[in-house]
Amino acid sequence: MHRRASLVLLALAVFFAALSPLLRWYAFPRLAKVPPSQYQEMVLEARPATLLDYGTLQAKEVEKVTIVQTLKGNVEESEKIERAAGRDVVVWDALSYIQGPDGKMVSQIPERYIFDAHSQAPVHATGESVDGDPVRREGIEYKWPFLTEKRDYEYFDAQTRTSAPIHYKGTRTYRGLDVYYFEQTIPWTKVPFPKKMPIPGVDATTLEKQTGTTRWYTTKRMFWVDPVTGAPVNGEEIHTEELRGGTLLGGRDKVTAFAGHVKMRPDYVTDTVELVKSQRLLVLLMTSYLPWGFLVLAAGLLVLSLALEARNRRPRAPEPEPEPHPVPV
After folding, report:
1. What backbone torsions phi and psi does residue 281 show, to the nearest 5 degrees?
2. CA distance 260 to 99
3. Domain spans of the chain, in order of start
4. What is the pLDDT of residues 225-257, one digit of tens each?
5. Cα(164)–Cα(154) distance, integer angstroms
6. Contact 158, 107 (CB under 8 A)
7. Three-state secondary structure call for residue 36
8. Is 287 helix (H, G, I), strand (E, B) or coil?
9. How far apart are alpha carbons 281 and 38 in whole angstroms?
10. DSSP characters for 224-266?
């Protein structure tokens, strides 16, 4: 009986020892992925900010500028691309909607971002675009990979339509989470006008050609990223835009179109941190808690199996001979 129990325990020890690396290195890369139907809304604000009044073409300080950013998973499009690409794909239809202190639209920029659901690497397919213009992304945007590393990444900038390094700047504690801090600075770069602008009767697609006025942009981009899920728990930008030259400015060299320190609204930061905390537990279960737990369990079962086997092999003490009964006389 002891021998059979020892063999069962040994078999279980081998099973859990083998399951540990399989879960971490085989199952996790295949099971951990961004869901194709994900929907997320984020509100960011610059308080105060400098904003161009397009009626007078004069820059003025305003109480705040609000940016409403939405990411909506397009399941139908992702399924179409998956059939051609042969892998799990996510399609995000994103929109950055900028409004002034009066709630009126300043500009809006739609995007279609297509990426691998597991690695977050870009997938190039028809429809990949920014503000209706086809693009070919390199690097990441919006989200870092699962199990983010302490290194620089290529990050796509939607204004310039190009990718540039975003630099790892160290580990920090943010609202109880150990996060990686990243920074990217985009130098002054000429960028296209948004196709939707608050200028009555002006076609933004021909604005530069008609007036000679150009749009320029620079930003310092900052992210606090949870390294387990790869999700930013906070993001900020010190963002400046200028219009330069041409007849639109009435002889002026340049005018500030927007300038401000853009930050996530505090209530959205709180919601994001809570969401990330719940998601990171699932990732940690597959990458740390369960694999290490299975190894510890396998070691315990092995020790118990060996103990039972040793007990089974231990020589038994001879049984004492019965004492002779006295013979009656």
Report:
1. -60, -40
2. 13
3. 2-22+288-313, 32-264
4. 999 999 999 999 999 999 999 888 888 999 999
5. 5
6. no
7. coil
8. helix
9. 19
10. EE-TTT--EEEEEEEEEEEEESSGGGTT-SEEEEEEEEEEE-H
Q: Using CA atoms, how far apart are residues 284 and 146, in angstroms rounded to an integer?
A: 11
How far apart are the C-alpha atoms of 52 and 252, rounded to whole Å?
14
What are phi and psi for residue 136, nearest 5 degrees? -130, 95
Q: DSSP of 39-101, one letter per residue?
A: EEEEEEEEEEEEEEETTTTEEEEES-EEEEEEEEE-HHHHHHHHHHHTS-EEEEEEEEEEE-T
Residue 233: Cβ-neighbour burial (10 angstroms; 0-12, 13-18, 19+): buried
Nearest-angstrom CA–CA distance, 84 and 322: 85
Q: Could you report the per-residue pLDDT of 100-151, keeping only the tens digit for each?
A: 998 889 999 999 999 999 999 999 999 999 999 999 999 999 999 999 999 9
pTM over 0.85: yes
